[in-house]
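dumping this here before i forget
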Amino acid sequence: MRAHLQRVKSARVEVASEVTGAISHGLLVLLGVGKGDTDDDRRWLLEKILGLRIFENEAGKMDKSVVDAGGALLVVSQFTLFADVHKGRRPSFDGAAPPEEANMHYTQFVEEARRSLAVETGRFRATMDVHLVNDGPVTLLLDSRTR
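structure:
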């Protein structure tokens, strides 16, 4: 399972001009599910995201997690995180999980995250417009297979 995290001052996602999720402060999480990802991959990734100390404390040092900072998550499904561009010019997405499996992990990720903080979402398998104001910018890539 892969996640592309961006610390944001604000973010929102729209589907057909309808806002499906918006946060004012926290992390935009682009979440990709790969073939063979397990519940353990999902739990590890969520724990890592919630625990990363990438928000500034009063002294300006990155020392707070999104939970400590009172932030929220905007979680957007992103199968293209599993694109393989090694051959040719057209990406292959063979490494991405099938939609049913990916949706199950995506839904579980969101439900489990909501136990710790506010979570907004995009819409699975929809074409989305994602708007954000980066904070920093701070951008991180996580992959449960390289832990």
